[in-house]
Every structure is written in structure tokens, then in C-alpha cells.
Amino acid sequence: MKSSTRIVLAGSCALGLLSAPTAAWSAEQKPTATPKPTATAKPAPKPTAKPVPKPVDCTKVKCIALTFDDGPGKYADKLLATLKKHNAKATFFLEGQYVKSRPAFAKLMVAEGHDIGNHSYTHPKFTESSVEQIREELKKTQDVVKKVTGRYPTTIRPPYGLLDDDTKAVATELKMPIVLWNGGSRDWATKNEKAIYDEVLKNAKRDGVILMHDWVAQTVTVMPRLLAELKKQGYHVVAVSSLPGFTALKPAEVFPAGAAEDKDLSADSPTGDPDDFAESPADGN
Ligand SMILES: [Zn+2]
What is the largest CA-CA distance in the chain? Predict the structure, then answer.
């Protein structure tokens, strides 16, 4: 077996050697039509790759992270176009079931440089789930996101922001930190552009993490005005992974610091009451 492998390799090397001189010969035959630059002529600029924008340094500038749960939502494409136009990055906590039904949106999120987090597969309350169910929900979502986008999510946001020791145990197994929020938009409750705009600006603070939903139409339609105002107030809108302290997070550690202990935050998230999802993330398809 070994010797036959060597033969194949030797064969392909020989082919390479044979083709190389041919390529060199044809290159030499090209007419040298380009005149040599004279001393007075400006040197042509060196061809460079597309300039890569410098990453935002949130230790030096004022940053804020907008996060969108339960997606990819049906308006995600419109939201992505707005974010792109405003040079803003976001974090999407995706549900595996919608990654499966809207793979193109998930792909686009990754392609455009946004962060992807794991928000379970079917959105159960982890505090009412067994450790096996939590593991299954998270792993299934890891797998479908990887399959669709080529990347694994790197953070967990448990549905409704509810977590317990079992959630932390599975997060430790998966070596993933847990990301909650420290400012809400109550977009799912008000479904009103002005109310969403006012609530986000009321809760906006440096290095804040804001909870929103890309299945709420008004969240998406108010976004251009909201991004313009945040910029006016000096904010750089970044993905969660750009915020100070993120890279030092350990598995199962909760970010932002103190969010797990803040009981007021639960009011920012839908309660699980079916009325909260009257216009559900799955509406439309
Ligand atoms: Zn959710």
C-alpha cells in the first residue's frame, strides 16, 4: 500500500515539473508593450487588496451592542441592509429551527461580519428543561448553524434570559460564555416605532447590550433613525465580541457582568405567554 501511494505522489510531481517550463516559456513570449516609467512619471500605486476597516477599539471609543433574538426573523434581510448602510455590526441570537427555514439570512449575517449566538432550537424555558434537553437544544443549533454558515456560534443566550445550574453546566461542556443584556427595547410588547426608539435611547449606555427582535417589523423600520441618533450621540454600534471584557470570558461566565443578578431585566424579554408572540417569529413561513 505504502509503495503505491509513493508512486502516485511521484507521478503528480512529475506532471508538475513537466507543466512548469511550459508556463514559463509562454510568459516570456509576451510582448513588453508597457513602457518603462521615466524619472518624471509618478510611480503607479501598488495594487492592494480592498482596504479592511480598522476594528473599533471600545476601550478608546464609546460603544454599544444591539442584539437581536429569535431569528433569523422574517425581516432580517431588511435589517442587514440597514446595518450595512450605517456600518454597524450586531449580534444575532439565532434559533436553530429558523436557521433551518431561513438559511440565506443566517449565511448573510456571518458573511457581513455580525456575531452569531445560540438561542436554542425551539425556544423552551431552560429552567423547566432537563440537562439532556438543554444539551440537545444547544447542540442541534450549533450543528445547524455550522452546516449553514460554516461557523459555530460562540455564545449562548438562553430563551427568555432564563438560566440555572443545568444551563451553566452545559455551557461549560460546550465551552461557551452566556450573553444576556443590560438594556431592553420592549419591542415585542409595544410594537411601536416611537416607543422602541425611546426605550432603546433611554437604556443606551457605553458598552451596553440591548435586547431587540428582528421578527418585530417596527424594530426593523425604526432602525435607520435609531442608528443615526446613536451615531449622533457618539456611539459605535458593534457586535458583542467587540465590547471590553468579552475576550477574557470563561465558559459559562455571564456577560455583561451583573446581568444574571439583575431581576429587572426579565421584564425586557417576552414571558413565554403565547400573547407575547401574537406575531410570532415564524409568521409568514
Ligand atoms: Zn428569545
Answer: 77
Kindly give the distance from the C-alpha atom of residue 126 to the centroid of ligand 1, in angstroms, as a whole number. Answer: 12
Does 13 reside within a domain? no
User: Which residue segment(s) compose the domain that 207 sits in?
Assistant: 63-261
CA of 98 to the centre of ligand 1 (A): 12
Percentage of the chain with pLDDT > 70?
Answer: 76
Determine, yes or no, domain membership for 255. yes
pLDDT tens for 120-174 read 999 999 999 999 999 999 999 999 999 999 999 999 999 999 999 999 999 999 9
CATH number of the domain bearing residue 129? 3.20.20.370
Q: What is the number of structural domains in the chain? A: 1
Alpha-carbon Rg for the chain, nearest whole angstrom, is: 25
In a domain, 74, yes or no: yes
> Active-site residue 213, yes or no?
yes
pLDDT digits (tens, 9 = 90+) for 205-216: 999 999 999 999
Residue of 119, 213, 214, 236 with catalytic role? 213
236 given a catalytic annotation: no
Q: What's the CA-to-centroid distance between 82 and ligand 1, angstroms?
A: 22
Is the link from the previous residue into 53 a cis peptide, with omega within 30 of 0? no
